[in-house]
Design a protein that fits this description.
49 residues, little secondary structure, two-stranded antiparallel ribbon
Length: 49
């Protein structure tokens, strides 16, 4: 996946292991990646939109 703001490749979020460390019925609640499971090296979790 690429960042919609800068087109750089996104990486698995270290805070939630790319969304694999979700809780409560696979519902992702991670503020570091803004609940996406992916982070941009420049924009962090706010790479969508």
């Amino acid at each position: 996946m690429e960042c919609r703001k800068c087109n750089r490749p996104t990486h698995d979020c270290s805070g939630c292991n790319g969304g694999r460390a979700s809780d409560f019925g696979n519902r992702l609640t991670c503020s570091k990646c803004d609940n996406t499971g992916r982070v941009c090296p420049v924009h962090g979790g706010h790479w969508k939109g």
